[in-house]
Description:
Layout: E1 2-4, E2 8-10, E3 13-15, E4 18-19, E5 28-32, H1 34-42, H2 46-59, H3 61-64, H4 66-76, H5 80-92, E6 95-99, H6 100-112
Antiparallel strand pairs: 1-2, 3-4, 5-6
Helix pairs in contact: 1-2, 2-6, 4-5
Amino acid sequence: MEDGNWNxxxxxxxxxxxxxxxxxxxxxxxxPQRHLIDAAIMANNGPFLLLKWDAVLxxxxxxxxxxxxxxxxxxVQPGGKVEGxxxxxxxxxxxxxxxxxxxxxxxxxxxxxxxR
Length: 116
């Protein structure tokens, strides 16, 4: 451990056999609501929903900014009020707030759901 007046405290290792890993904050993203995803997959229309998803995020910067605002507000003022507010804002545009990993997995499923 290093400790200094201006540097703060730096933890170099916790156990000698394991390297210390810094906490990685959760990255949030928007994805279409579950019922829209399910309907697109059932109709083999996944790529079309992907196009709509990308178009909304490109054409509406206020919608695309929701995950960043949600992440900031969760960090600064965690609680139900923040959760409810940003989830409701996303729902107005037919989106859910999910982790980046979940959104990428959903994209892979939609790409496979095609009539071709």
